[in-house]
Each structure stands twice: as structure tokens, then as C-alpha cells.
């Protein structure tokens, strides 16, 4: 599978960017007739239409329960004046959930399957080339129906024409629509299509000060190739002050950086407290035509190049050859009204709360997040475990070649998009598959083999709910990540059982896999903000505090930073940072999973202060 053009749309001397975010025409297509009636070719969508913000999930924008729980197709449309000031224009959707069909001026332009990842199309051919401006209409049909071969999977039950239920093997609400930005950007005919950059190695002196680093890069050029023999590149690396460090003119080569400033996750060994930003270089690539040397065709900058290495031993996760301990809380892209819709207010609050908490890591549970999260993580030194949307796989999927092929496609798109972010330290290919199923073995063996070829220096894993003795697939991966809910989904109410159960669990995994470090990728308890009881009972703030603290003693006993010689436990990620929306059920009061340290409105519960204290202490373990 080859994917091109997942470079984030960055403005430059040669690239213009136009946001198409705004209020779009919108309507449901409950009867599924829009395509046969050719709604894409009409000047307006058939009434009744409403105004829908883009980006946002459509579900919670109105008071209409039919829109909230809609399953099937919806339509979006927008018109704009287009000024033809560049030779090539690309229409980019940062994501639409799940299946999207796009028409430009009535003509089919691009289709994409899968939420959470961008897709784009060169629309130059659809817009009149002679006129200097024209009116353009974009129509998008989005279908949120999940099937046994989508990722995540889902199962549609049709009891009768008006009673249809989409059963999902995951608890977060299946928010849908154009939930990330829509962007129009220009390039020249020949343009920089893709850039990859990796830290190959870093040399340290005896004080562990970096003396030099080797970066390898590769640049792909796209476009009309008639002038290809006169196309030239300049590759330049600038430091944080904007001073040129090193340059090259090959499309693929190495850059040597003397006395490099390293990128580090915050909270590592005192060297980089969570209150400071991480060190980032900028890579500038210039494409020009040698036939007329002043003719610069394209300039693209990656503003977040981090120099750092990753290496796993059988008991440690090393960043820059020093043991790193992941600590933080996972989240969903989820907030009031917007659903999964991308919003910079929510983004900035998320990272401010992360700084307050002194968290240094999270997993993008359970799908790749909007690009902007990774950019913030690069800057603040937050480690990311990048996860695919493969949540809740079971035998149906393990025996399906179509699912495996789609999974490979999604892995390819995710890694192509995210591989240049220094913050991404590991790839998680699935969350809680039924990996005790015998069919899981062949599936994950094939997926691991495939991903290793693309992994760009990162270890690979999947997140396990299966028991230590039944799991069939993790043997093919690098690290053990387990989700456990002792004293919640099992041993309900029994806080006293946590220490022995957690210790036994970790020891069992270690015994079976003595060569793989272990991380607790989820643990947590639902807590209704403001509900109190002493002694602690389930759902109270007191219970959540004691529940989380109960796990920590067992973690510390085997921690790789507390016990450098015998420890093998490399991190703890709480479930969850925020309360988040779920399907309605008898276990979800008000339609929320309430395991957040913070409410859905981003206000702290008592446990948030417990975690802040712990994370501050973890930062000071030498
Ligand atoms: C899990 C899942 C997560 C759920 C969580 C829960 O193990 O990975 O998606 O939200 O349990 O709270 O039930």
C-alpha cells in the first residue's frame, strides 16, 4: 500500500491555505435516496436543511433526538468563491466519520473509508481554469454505519424499519460527521509530496551529554515530471533560534548534527521538568527548477523535528538511552456539544490540564487524534502511544481478509501521517481484541510483520484485556500493555483486594514474557463528581482516590525507574482523563463513562489532586 500527501497543510512562501470551516448546509438521508436522486448535482440539498458547523460531530448540535442517534447517511454542502491564483489546488478533509463521498461542482472527486485520518484530492481539474475566479460547490455524503469489516467494527440490527440499533464492541459514543477541518491549499505543478525524517543515532560523552546525532531523511517530489531532470532540492535544518545547523541537496541522505539539543518527554530525570517546553528543530525543504535558478517551486517546513532515540530492553523503555516511565491519563476526543469535533479551545485546555497534572504521556485511545494534538505534544514533551481505530476485534475480524487488508491500510495511513512527530514513541495496533481466540494468532502475526516494515523506529504493541495465559498475539509484539479493572468490573467494591491482585497479575505476565517490558495502559473507576461516602463506596470521589492509590504501590514494587536492576514495569496510564459520552445503558448515568479525573466540563474531581501529587513525585525519581 502506498500513501502520499499526508503532510500536514503548512503555509509557506509558495503555499496558500484556505479554511473551509464554517456553517454548512446539512440534512439527514434517512431513506438513503440521496445518491439515486443525485443530491450532489443540485444547487441546494432538498429541504428541510439546517445549518451545521464544520468541524463538529452533528449528533449533539440540535435538540432533535433523531439527529443524535441517526444511523446511516447524512449530507453536507458548501459554496464558496474560488480565486485561481495558483496552478494546483488540493481539497483536504482532516477526517470524516466513517465513509465519505465527496463531489466538487457535481463531479465525484474522492471517496474515503475510515474516520480519524485525513484524505485529500487535487481538485484543479474540477474548477474552471480560464476564469480567474469561479463559484465552487462541495457536497459530502457521510455514512456512520459500522460493519464487521470497518475499524472499529459494528453490527447493525434491524428489528423493523423504524427500530434499528448499531451494536458497537466499544463503549464510546459513535459520533459522526465532518468532525475535523476542511482545508483548501495550493502548490505549484511540481511540489514536495512527502518528507520523512528519523534520528538514526546519537553519540553521548561520559557525562551523558550528546556530542553528535545522525538524522536520515527522504523527500518525495510529486507532480508533472517533464522538467524532472532540472528539479533540485535544498534541505536545511534550523535550530530553535532559526540558525542554520546543517544542509544538503540530495533527496535522500543523512544530516550530522554536532552538539544536538535533544527532544525529551517532560519529567525525565530532572533534566526537563513538565513546566518547560521541549527542544524542536525546523526542517526546511526547498524545491526549485535548475533551468531558471531563481525559480522556487515549493517550500515546505516541518516545524517540529525532535532529535531523540527509542530503544527497548527486556525491562526498560529507553529514550535517549535513559529509562523513561510513562505516567498520565488517556482520553477521548470528546466534549460537550462538539462530540468528537475538533476545537482549539478543547485542545489548549487539554494540554494546560496535562501540564497542571504533570502528566508526561497518553495513548490516543482508541483512534488517531487530530494532528494538532501531536504538535502540542511535540512542544510540551508529552509522549504519545499512537493507536489505530481497531477496538473490540474478535473472531469475525480475525478470519476476515477484508478486515486485515483494511487494518493494514489504516496502519499505513496513520504511520505516514504521524511518523515525523518526535512525541510518538510507540504504535498500538488495537485495543482489547479478543486475543485469547485461537484465530488471533495468525491475524496479529501477519499484522506485526506488515507493521515492522513501516514502524519508523517505534516499538509496536496492542492493548490487552485477555488473560496472561490465553493471549495468542502479543508474542509477535515488543511490549505488554494491559488494561485491568480489579475492584471495579471484578471484585466490585473490594479496594482491599487491589494490591495482591495487581502484583500477581504483573508477575504472571512477567513470568510468561520475561523479555518484554510491561505497562498498565488502563485502570480506573467510575466516579460521579460530588458524590461522597466514607468509608469509600463505588462511584464516590473517595473510592476513586483510594482505587488509584491502591494500584500505585504494586506499580512501584516493580517499576523500572524505582528499581533500575530488577524492575520491568515502565508506565501507568489512568482511564480516563475526562468523563466521556457513551451509548445509553444501565451502567452509564447520563450517557457518560465517568472514570474521568476531570468531569466532561474539564473540572477536577478529588482524584485529580492525588494524581498530580504522584506525578510530581515521579518526576523527581533520579
Ligand atoms: C476498557 C476499554 C475502554 C472502556 C473501559 C471502561 O477496557 O478499553 O474503552 O471505556 O474499559 O471504562 O469500561
Termini Cα gap: 44 Å
Shape: globular
How large a portion of the residues is in β-strands, by DSSP E? 25-35%
Named once each, the bound ligands are:
(2S,3S,4S,5R)-3,4,5-trihydroxy-6-oxo-oxane-2-carboxylic acid
Q: Give the biggest sheet.
A: 8 strands, parallel
Q: Strand order, main sheet: write it out.
A: 23-30-29-28-27-26-25-24
Detail the poorly predicted runs. Answer: none
Function: Plays an important role in the degradation of dermatan and keratan sulfates.
Domain Glycoside hydrolase family 2 catalytic: 310-619
InterPro entries: Beta-gal/glucu_dom_sf, Galactose-bd-like_sf, GH, Glyco_hydro_2, Glyco_hydro_2_AS, Glyco_hydro_2_cat, Glyco_hydro_2_N, Ig-like_fold
Protein name: Beta-glucuronidase
Verbal overview:
The structure is a single chain. This protein is α+β, with helices and mostly antiparallel strands and 622 residues long. The chain is built from nine helices and 32 strands. β15 and β16 form a beta hairpin. α5 runs parallel beside α6, α7 runs parallel beside α8 and α8 packs parallel to α9. The longest helix is centred in the middle third of the chain and has 18 residues. 47% of the residues are buried. The mean pLDDT is 95. The structure holds (2S,3S,4S,5R)-3,4,5-trihydroxy-6-oxo-oxane-2-carboxylic acid. (2S,3S,4S,5R)-3,4,5-trihydroxy-6-oxo-oxane-2-carboxylic acid binds next to loops.
